[in-house]
Design a protein that fits this description.
Layout lengths: L1 H4 L4 H20 L11 H10 L4 E11 L9 E4 L10 E7 L1 H12 L7
Antiparallel strand pairs: 1-2, 1-3
């Protein structure tokens, strides 16, 4: 967040504000194992397309979106070893956080001269 804010340009200001908003939301509604961390799913997808080694652990499993009942609209991942349906998604379980951050900063830093 601080890196982007230090650029003093519209892109840096926007990214810093978005990161702060996401961190605040996770801290309040979905706290993780330490404060001020939050996944950035969409950016991770793009970074994976650019360099698949940014994802260090992935698992092939079954995923369904539940329609109706108590779990309406929920995404359900079947993590059992023996499940009822075919595996249909690959799920990221761990990343190289340093590589991700470096890639994100590098890509977005190309906007430093935008005023």
């Amino acid at each position: 967040e601080e890196v982007f804010a230090s650029w003093n340009n519209p892109v840096g200001d926007f990214v810093a504000a978005e990161i702060r908003g996401r961190l605040n939301a996770y801290n309040t509604m979905q706290p993780l194992h330490e404060p001020d961390i939050a996944p950035i799913h969409d950016a991770l997808c793009i970074m994976y397309l650019l360099d698949p080694t940014v994802i260090t652990k992935m698992k092939h499993m079954r995923c369904d979106v539940i329609c109706g009942g108590m779990a309406d609209g929920m995404t359900l991942f079947d993590t059992r070893h023996f499940n009822d349906g075919p595996k249909n998604v690959y799920v990221c379980l761990d990343t190289d956080e340093e590589k991700f951050a470096s890639m994100l900063i590098d890509i977005l830093s190309r906007s430093k001269n935008i005023q």
